[in-house]
């Protein structure tokens, strides 16, 4: 009988030379993204794409099949954080109550994994980031949303393109 709790086989880390090559590619991608994005948005909004890339790389292992849930979860997290700022300031006590209900509902849905393609760990990461008072005081919500979605799509396309290029040069088994 196979142990269903067994950890999946681990992929060995890259060699030091491969690690340097990956680092160089990451730096080029980040600089290219920033050079383009800063033409359209404030620097404080860039964090959305960077957080999504970090989340997808570390939790989704850069698998394209796991990107949509990471992207949607990130957007839901931004929406909940936005409502936490908007509700109380525009609707008073009722807005505070509704925004807290929205937060608690998101937490509950994440805990029970009811709709993991929509509310997931990415949601909680983005709620945590975007609900921080320092972020809420300085962020342009539309720009944060745009950089998260468009930057996320940029990085997903770049990663998938690089995977295809790497596959062409990989030694045959």
Question: In a few lines, what is going on in this structure?
Answer:
The chain is an all-alpha fold and 173 residues long.
Largest sheet: none
Shape designation: globular
Give the N-to-C terminal Cα separation. 30 Å
Query: Taking all residues together, what is the mean pLDDT?
Result: 92
What percentage of residues falls in helices of 4 or more residues?
over 70%
Low-confidence stretches: none
Rounded to the nearest angstrom, the radius of gyration is 19 Å
The number of helical runs is 6
Q: Roughly what fraction of the amino acids lie in strands?
A: under 5%
Q: Would you report the number of β strands?
A: 0
Would you tell me the structural class of the helices and strands? Answer: mainly alpha
Describe the fold and architecture.
The chain has one domain. Helix 2 (47-59) crosses helix 6 (141-169). The mean pLDDT is 92. It has helices at 16-37, 47-59, 67-111, 121-130, 133-138, 141-169. It has 6 helices and no strands. The chain is mainly α.
From the structure above, extract its key features.
mainly alpha; 173 residues; single chain
């Amino acid at each position: 009988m196979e142990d269903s709790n067994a950890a999946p086989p681990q992929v060995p880390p890259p060699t030091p030379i491969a690690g340097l090559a990956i680092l160089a590619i990451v730096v080029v991608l980040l600089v290219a993204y920033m050079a383009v994005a800063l033409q359209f948005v404030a620097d404080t909004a860039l964090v959305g794409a960077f957080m999504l890339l970090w989340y997808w790389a570390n939790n989704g292992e850069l698998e394209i099949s796991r990107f949509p849930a990471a992207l949607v979860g990130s957007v839901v997290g931004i929406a909940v954080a936005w409502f936490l700022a908007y509700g109380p300031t525009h609707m008073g006590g009722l807005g505070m109550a509704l925004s807290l209900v929205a937060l608690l509902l998101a937490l509950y849905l994440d805990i029970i994994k009811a709709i993991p393609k929509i509310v997931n760990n990415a949601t909680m990461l983005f709620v945590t980031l975007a609900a921080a008072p320092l972020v809420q005081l300085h962020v342009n919500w539309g720009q944060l949303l745009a950089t998260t979605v468009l930057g996320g799509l940029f990085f997903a396309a770049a990663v998938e393109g690089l995977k295809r290029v790497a596959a062409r040069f990989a030694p045959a088994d």
